[in-house]
Design brief:
21 strands, binds magnesium ion, Arc Repressor Mutant, subunit A, six-stranded parallel β-sheet, Rossmann fold, 5 domains, alpha/beta
């Protein structure tokens, strides 16, 4: 192989000889190149994708010492141990270590004897420490879990915020910011905070091919029953269930434990118990853990088949991290999100608790004087109760309104806190709104998440397996075929949209209601059905009225929708609550139950009838085609067609698109894409 630059280090060689890996993972090489070239870079890739190598390898290629800043002692210890095991010279400095060890680390660092120095961000507050670092310039600076820098990030660390001011003294080393979770807003905040220079950005790998996402409106009292019902099937285990509160985690774990090995995990349990639970789950002795968000950081279990959210998550970032724990082994896995309007009120409560009114902060701020004040005195003169005071002080400190030093006295900070605090509180509220809109959407779930993380290149491809892409494959969510009246209404909507760029849902409704045909909920359900069928696209939009921002949905016809004709078959599926075996008790209109086959019946049907030899042969041909097609599209085979659909096609041997459409599991999107090929195969086999 010819190297363009003869002095360029052979990264591949280092990868193999030092790290013992045979090849780079996706994007790793490009990232390493950029770092070796001295570029600042921002790396946003999911957990487990191999980000550490992206600073470790360039560090070795560049020579000298790499300074690694990491906010979690456990992560730091883990990385340091791995590097030491490779025979590299590594030291670390954090609060969990002996003073003598830290001192020795400094000596080694200054003598240039280290290849890696790991430090916790709060070290930078120790007088003299940043100056010590600057005496021996690092060759590279890596900032792990960089989202902690951003006040928009979900676990903002005040200590991380100071990093920016210390970096200039450590330059000209390239700065590498690494994180698994940063929305575009957080990304630009990181770049700005660290004053990164024209950073190379790598934002990749958020799509998870083997996760099928379902989002189902579920009343709170029904959730325990649904969770138990889902997990009764051993094929859906091991599983993690996320519960919105400790109490609910306990209750749910109790119910599950009567049926299978299950336990609760939350911050209210002592460390020993938490460790027990985590280890038992890891070792396969527990099938299910019901956790609050405190669970999962240390989990490295590849075979988790199901992740259930028994309540609305607070942010899409957190939600994505949590569902991402399923299916690390690459096998098909399913995730369920249960929500209802009641969840929003719970979140509003937490939001008010965690983001107290600016007035509370103001009281503390005003009580501060020129001279340092002990915290007790400050609390007394602020006249807030203990809890409110602690919260207000914490927020005020984060936003620079107060400085609290190690011996517990407070000094007044700058007045800028008010603005940044208000902005942050509003941002939190918006994050929740995004989750709510995600649950309300009828577009591809995976595409929505990929887009949320800012990987725009990859945000338009449909996953094929979520409840929006493959409604008939949904386990929990029930869909029924649209009635003749609804299909006619869909045509009327298409007629209405055809001449215009788009229409607001409300405008459509007013137009159609004149004809006395439909209410708002029914219209929304129908629009969602049309979106799933690829006939329209819906988009959230805002307008301002009386100084207030209001949201509305607008709909536009897709190319496929443009071609809708009353003379052509129209396949529409309307969301219709939950499959009966899990939670169907609340159904009011028995007529609809008849319209849709309960999931249990469907499953039985698919399992019972064995294929005749002729059908068997056709199924085999179809499988061959499916394998080739999956390869071509680079998706798993079941994305092209489920086994049960494939068998159903073999059994019914359709001759026309219309017949094919009648096969269970063949939606119109599938017929559009694959219909011609499938029909050709079934015709040839006769
Ligand atoms: P992240 O920081 O992105 O969550 P890590 O850097 O901890 O991920 O890497 C996850 C795992 O992948 C580690 O066990 C690491 O050794 C492994 N890994 C990284 N790069 C490669 C590679 N090129 N080949 C094989 N394994 C790799
Ligand atoms: Mg990492």
């Amino acid at each position: 192989m010819v190297n363009a630059n003869p002095h360029a280090p052979d990264l591949k060689h280092l990868l193999q000889t030092v790290f013992g890996f045979s090849s780079f993972r996706a994007n790793q090489e490009a990232v390493c190149r950029a770092a070796v070239d001295g570029r600042d870079l921002l790396l946003v890739m999911p957990t487990g994708s191999g980000k550490s190598l992206c600073y470790q390898l360039p560090a070795l290629a560049l020579g000298g010492t790499a300074l690694v800043i990491s906010p979690l002692i456990a992560l730091m210890e883990d990385q340091a141990a791995k590097l030491s095991a490779l025979g590299l010279r590594v030291a670390r400095i954090h609060s969990g270590l002996d003073r003598a060890v830290a001192r020795q680390a400094c000596v080694d660092y200054l003598q240039g004897g280290l290849q890696f120095l790991f430090i916790a961000p709060e070290r930078l507050r120790v007088p003299g420490f940043p100056e010590m670092l600057a005496k021996h310039k690092p060759a590279l600076i890596a900032i792990d879990e960089a989202h902690c820098i951003s006040q928009w990030g979900h676990d903002f660390r005040p200590d991380y915020r100071m990093l920016g001011q210390h970096l200039p003294a450590l330059r000209p080393a390239p700065v590498l910011a690494l994180t698994a979770t940063a929305t575009p807003t957080v990304q630009s905040d990181i770049v700005e905070q660290l004053a990164m220079e024209r950073p190379a950005k790598f934002i990749h790998g958020f799509r998870r091919e083997n996760l099928a996402i379902e989002v189902v409106e579920t009343p709170v009292p029904e959730r325990a029953r649904v969770v138990c019902g889902l997990l009764a099937d051993p094929a859906r285990r091991p599983a993690i269930v996320y519960a919105p509160s400790r109490k609910q985690a306990e209750l749910l774990a109790g119910e599950l434990a009567a049926r299978m090995p299950a336990a609760a995990y939350h911050a209210g349990l002592d460390a020993e118990r938490r460790e027990q639970v985590q280890e038992a789950f890891q070792a396969g002795k527990l099938d299910v853990v019901v956790a609050t968000i405190a669970f999962g950081m240390g989990i490295d279990k590849a075979d988790i088949r199901t992740v259930i959210h028994a309540g609305l998550p607070a942010t899409l970032e957190g939600y994505y991290q949590e569902i991402g724990r399923a299916g690390r082994d690459g096998k098909q896995s399913r995730t369920f999100l249960m929500h209802s309007y009641a969840d929003q009120r719970t979140h509003d409560f937490f939001l008010n608790r965690d983001y107290p009114p600016p007035g509370d902060l103001e009281r503390v701020y005003r009580a501060l004087g020129e001279n340092p004040l002990p915290l007790d005195e400050l609390r007394n003169s602020s006249k807030l109760d203990e809890e409110a005071f602690d919260k207000a002080l914490e927020k005020l400190e984060i936003h620079g309104g107060v400085k609290v030093d190690y011996n517990g006295t407070a000094t007044r900070g700058g007045p800028g806190w008010k603005k940044t605090y208000t902005v942050q509180a509003r941002h939190r509220a918006e994050q929740l709104e995004k989750v709510v809109r995600y649950t309300e959407s009828s577009a591809c779930r995976m595409a929505a998440l990929v887009g949320h993380f800012g990987d725009e290149e990859d945000a338009n491809r449909q996953c094929g397996v979520c409840d929006a892409c493959d409604p008939e494959g949904a386990v929990l969510k029930l869909f029924r075929r649209a009635s003749a009246a609804e299909r006619e209404l869909a045509h009327a909507i298409a007629d209405d949209l055809r001449p215009v760029a788009y229409k607001a849902a409300g405008t459509l409704q007013r137009g159609l209601e004149l004809a006395g045909r439909v209410g708002r909920d029914e219209l929304n359900a129908l629009l969602d059905g049309m979106t799933r069928a690829g006939l329209i696209e819906q988009e959230d939009a805002v307008y301002e009225k009386d100084g207030e921002v209001r949201r509305f949905r607008k709909a536009r016809l897709t190319e496929k929708g443009m071609e809708m004709r009353r003379s052509l078959p129209l396949e529409l599926l309307i969301a219709d609550g939950m499959v009966e075996e899990f939670g169907g008790g609340r159904r009011e209109k028995p007529a609809k139950v008849a319209a849709a086959k309960p999931r249990a019946a469907k499953k039985a049907e698919a399992q019972v009838a064995a294929l005749s030899p002729g059908e068997e042969a056709l199924a085999a041909r179809l499988k061959e085609w499916r394998t080739a097609e999956a390869k071509r599209l680079r998706v798993p085979a079941y994305v092209v067609m489920h086994d049960r659909t494939l068998n159903a096609v073999a059994r019914s041997r359709p001759k026309t698109p219309r017949e094919l459409l009648l096969v269970d599991g063949m939606g119109s999107a599938k017929v559009d894409r694959f219909g011609a090929a499938i029909l050709e195969i079934s015709a040839a086999e006769i």
